[in-house]
Amino acid sequence: MDKLTVSEINARGKRVFLRVDYNVPMEEKEGRMVITDETRIKETLPTLQLLIKQGARVILAAHLGRPKGQREPSMSLRPVAERLADMLGRPVAFVDDCIGDKVEKTASILREGDVLVLENIRYYAEEEANDPGFAEKLARVADLYVNDAFGAAHRAHASTEGVARVVAARGGHCAAGLLMERELKFLGDELESPARPFVVVLGGAKVSDKIGVIDKLLEKADAILIGGAMAYTFKLAMGAKVGKSLVEAHKVDVAKAALGKAKSRGVKFLLPTDNTVATPVNTGKLNKKGNPVFELQNPRTNVEPDIPDSEEGVDIGPATSLAYAAELRGARTVLWNGPMGIFEDPRFAAGTIAVAKAVVEATQGGAKSIIGGGDSVKALNQAGLGDQVTFMSTGGGASLEFLEGRVLPGVAALSAR
Ligand code: AMP
Question: What CATH number is given for 6-181 in this structure?
Answer without folding.
Answer: 3.40.50.1260
